[in-house]
Amino acid sequence: MLVQRRALLAAPALLPLAARAQSDWPQRPLTMMVPFVAGGPSDITARVIAAKMGAVIGQPVVVENRPGATGAVAAQAMMRAAPDGYTMMTGSIGVFAINKALRPNLPYDPERDFAPITLAVTTPNVLVINPQKIPATDFAGTMAWLRTNGASASYSTSGVGSSEHMTMELFKLRTRTEATHIPYQGGSAASTALIGGDVQLTFQNLSSVAGHLTSGRMRAVLVTSDVRNPTIPDVPTAAEVGLDDFVVTSWQAVMAHAAIPAPILARLEAACIESLRHPESMQRLQQIGFDVVASSAADFRRFQAAEIGRWRTVVDRAHIQAE
After folding, report:
1. Which burial class, exposed, middle or buried, applies to 161 when counting CB atoms under 10 A from its CB (0-12, 13-18, 19+)?
2. Which one, 112, 126, 154, 308, has least CB within 10 Å?
3. Sequence-ordered alpha helix ranges (H) in 249-296
4. Is the model's pLDDT at 82 over the cut of 50?
5. 3-state SS of the chain: helix, strand, coil percent to 5?
6. Domains and CATH numbers, the chain
7. Separation CA 32–CA 276 (nearest Å)
């Protein structure tokens, strides 16, 4: 009886300790993992957030690159991390949506295992051609060339399951055209292949090919945003050329461990959104072709679920298989 009484007296004392740990958060630096090498879209987004988030929460935010296995290395590391709010991950559409649609044996579930923080940024994809290989100046000319030469045409991407790969496969389904997929190790290599004439066309993130468009080494004939992009104002949207429901963006988002207490998740969400909406952050991201979204966690979760469903349909219809 005495032991039971002591246990009952001790139990309430544990609750303030847990509440105090949450109210005192953060007491040490945070880690923002990135599932790719430095310099890519996920890395840039993470570093922009981290630069302002430290001042918002009063602790440094350290970016840690953990590339490998199309994002699974970093994802599994986050799953193993303590659910205390000190570890987050900034990742791409591939890590948080396409992988689940494409890879049946994925060692993590981006919906079950992770808590959404915010959809950080989006950028449209652009259909670009090698003007020396495809003698067209616009989308209509490109389509005419594809319908005649599709059997021998090829397109480059940064890899199986990448945003560019899935966008092109969706494009082929919608336009009933053909082109052979040639995957490369990264977007830079895919662009180099197009410029060198190894392939004739590709979909790429606008942020990664803007410089090549200015130089004339590539020609953009279609942008997948819902409105024309000010970086390439003469390039039509899919809707303008008759492709309905073809708004496609490559995106970067922030996630955390699913078991983190709700009050800490709310503070992470608020801090990330404030960091993204800082004028310096917005200027930096917009300069390289990103549209800052900084959504609520709830809005991002709905968006993520829709994206997974959309790309699962493309995977099934196009019979895409992971490497």
Report:
1. buried
2. 112
3. 262-276, 279-287
4. yes
5. 50, 20, 35
6. 30-122+250-318 (3.40.190.150), 124-241 (3.40.190.10)
7. 14
